[in-house]
Structures are given as C-alpha cells and as structure tokens.
Amino acid sequence: MHRGYIKLWRKITEWEWWDDPNTFRVFIYLLLQANHQDGNWRGIKVKRGQHVSSINKISVATRLSTKNVRTSINHLISTNEVAKDSPTKQWTIYTITRFEDYQPTKEVAKGGQRSGKGVATNNNDKNEKNEKRRKKSERKNSIAFGDEKVIFLLEDEHKKLATRFGERNVDKFIENMQNWKLQSAANMNKYTNDYRALLNWTSRAKEDGKLKISWDSFREEDFDTPEEYQEIINKYS
Hints:
The structure is a single chain. By secondary structure, this protein is mainly alpha-helical. It has helices at 21-33, 55-62, 66-78, 99-102, 123-139, 155-165, 167-181, 185-190, 194-207, 226-236, and strands spanning 39-41, 44-46, 50-53, 82-85, 92-96, 143-145, 151-153. Strands 3-5-4 form a 3-stranded antiparallel β-sheet. The radius of gyration is 21 Å and the shape is globular.
C-alpha cells in the first residue's frame, strides 16, 4: 500500500481540463507519481515535481489507450501544465510546471502559526492573489470578438490562435463559442479565460479530425516573418 498523500485544492473544479476525464486522469496520475524531493533514477537526475515514465507505462497505470494518453499529455503541454524531456529512447521526464502551486512546501499550521514560530504568512496565498491581480489587469486590455462581443482575447492571443489554426478557423470557433455562451448564464460565466477555452476547443477538434486546415485559412499579416508564413503555405498546400 502506498504511503503519503497529495493536496487537491477545491478550485481544481474551475480548471480548464476538469471536464476532460482523460486529461484530468493523466494529470492527477503524474501529480501523484511526481517526486516530492530531488533524486536519481537509473542515472537520471529527477527533480522535485518530475516523474520518469513512458506513454505505455502511463497507459497501463491509468487504463487508457496509448492514443488517449498521448492526446492528454499534448493537452497539458499546450496549456503549460506539463513539460517533457526525453533523456533516453525508453523514458521521458514529465515535469509538473507549477508543482509548487499544487504541492507547496511551506505549510501554515492550524491557528495560523508554524510550530515554534510566530504568526506565519501564507506566501502561496499571497502569490496567488498577486497572480490574480496581474491576470485581471492584463485582461483589461482584451478585445471583444464575435458579433455579440462576448469573446474576449488579447491581441497577441488572437494572433497565436490565427497562426496555429488559421484565421478562418478561429473566426468559426469564436462564432461557435459565442453561440454556446449565449445559450445560458452558466455558459456565459463558465470560462475565466476565453483564450484557453478556444485553444482547448480547437485542439480537440483538430485531434478528432473535425478541424480541417488549409493554406487559405491563414493570413500573412498574422505571422512575424514572410518565411514563417511561407512555411505554413508549404505545409498545407
């Protein structure tokens, strides 16, 4: 029987992958398996928040197909929840990029004091509040998209989506999300970050084969250099 435990905050129900069972399952598995302190395994240095594994091993442990595991990991990488590095052909190091946020090392004891010390400040709560303020301030510069102006993206976020999926495809998904939001107040308030939601929607559609990308989906002005635009044209022509 395994000893120990991990913390699982209630706010994870607000996480963008909460309603994706496979991605959520894989993430929790990696969170459970990640090192709680630096160590070594078969000559590989494994830091706190990292886990050495493979697609096949995760597939067996989670009882998901290798395809579902690979898709789930790509989801987590796309939103910077997980990073990966392959030091050998057999094994991959998976890193929980914000492991300290999920499993903080500094604890506040019951009553707000640390053992043998004065009143303690929960630095994680402070950092979280500062991060929320930063994000809120950043979102003030967002632009309303769609006919009903209910999809909010930063200019740079819209550009990233356009260079990845094509301007026409992004416009279509903005329209779809807008129509979905307008169905109910619950839908309207579900996402706190429309960029991440759109990235999720378009990534899933692409993986499911429902999103067809062609060269005429892209605009040259969405790319930083003519070379990047030409590379896309060559890829999808």
